[in-house]
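The data are set out underneath:

___
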Amino acid sequence: QVQLVDSGGGSVQAGGSLRLSCAVSGDTTRTYYMGWFRQAPGKEREGVAHIRTDSGSTYHADSVKGRFTISQDNDKNTLYLQMNSLKPEDTAMYYCAAGRAGTTLYGVAKYNPRNYAYWGQGTQVIVSS
């Protein structure tokens, strides 16, 4: 079992920055993928950024590439999403997630929320112009 608690959301003006955090607990020995997703009203949940936890390899959606950075601090058991140059279209509920134990995700599969077994409660990000 893996437990996730995400935090750090808030309201910010366009061009501003936020850093989201996800506190991770439980047995993550066989958790190889973690990620950040977001969901805006009327839209499907979409993958934003993902990390292979053992190698540290990261992947970012085209819409956020160059602006958002996913990272992990193993000593603190925390996953981060640094969000810079925020745009109004980034407004959404953001969720951290952990992949199914022992699974490896290839290609676009890492962006599919159905491939993740554990979720944080969500933290709201609002970007105003």
